Amino acid sequence: MENLSNINVIKELFEKHGFSFSKTLGQNFLINPSVCPKIAEQGNAKKGFGIIEIGTGIGVLTNELAKRADKVVAVEIDERLLPVLEETLCEHKNIKIINADVMKINLHEIIQDEFKGLNVAVCANLPYYITSPIIMMLLEQRLPLTSITVMVQKEAGQRLCAKMGSREMGAVTVAVRYFSEPEILFNVSKGSFMPAPNVDSCVVRFNVKDKTPEGVTDEKFFFKVVRGAFSQRRKTLSNSVASAFGIDKKSVNEAIEKSGLSLNIRPEALRMEEFVAFSENLKATI
Ligand code: SAM
Asked: Which atom of ligand 1 is nearest to the CA of 75?
């Protein structure tokens, strides 16, 4: 069904199916008709690709994805939307809807079963209450993905795509850069959604790397160090890590020095290879 970004069409569907927005599920649906085609085109929805969508809403993006890609698997947590989707997406035979919480399903299995012989990408207008956990889950699982293209709140997008060494960076920045090359594609104003959120959004794409940085012997420990390093804003690496791990500053300082770093260094000043060296040295020290 076309016109899914038309407010009157949306209102009619809601009335017919007795649907109302759930704020807790981050339901801000796209009503700007130019946005979904752009996400689909820049998100690898094309021949030879299978697309995973997270959060269908009434299917406005799903429709654009299904027109372009070989297959779409769309995960939607809200079962009240299932009858709506049956109506709005009925002309597409290449869509499978999974009614589930995306954080609780086995995406490796889904990719294997549903996308044989296809490249796979994620495209979504993400629910804002769970943006970072979803992105981290997709990256950390090492799913065989080409790219992840998602709409997020503007500030979250800036943090996710921040350069190493910049003021905006946080633990999630390091994690994103460990697994991918991130880029902000375009901004989307709050008026493009119904209901309108309080802030503007942007669409970001993570181009998943074939190889992660060398030298990490224990990925779990590495990310524990990264999270610990940013656990206390504006503190030094030494203080933050010592307090996050509940250990003596002496051993942390030893690892900092062994990595050739200054004892006063702040976590946002470290480059990726310095995080790797520090994490390996800390592991050997404690
Ligand atoms: N794609 C639609 C659009 O652009 O209009 C809807 C986007 S809306 C921002 C987010 C959607 O994600 C909602 O439909 C919501 O019900 C769904 N959602 C929220 N939490 C979810 C979860 N944990 N797993 C799967 N879907 C979820």
From this structure: 25
Q: Which two tokens stand for residue 126?
A: 């993400």
Tell me how many domains the chain contains: 2
Q: Of 213, 218, 214, whose CA–CA distance to 177 is shortest?
A: 213
Q: Is the pTM of this model over 0.90?
A: yes
- Give yes or no: residues 70 and 200 share one domain: yes
- CATH classification of the domain holding 230: 1.10.8.100
Half-sphere exposure of 179 (CA within 13 A, CB side): 25
Taking CA atoms only, the protein residue closest to ligand 1 atom 10 is 127
Triad 33, 35, 39: Cα angle to 5°: 135
Q: pLDDT tens-digit profile of 174-189?
A: 999 999 999 999 999 9
- C-alpha span between 148 and 135 (Å, rounded): 8
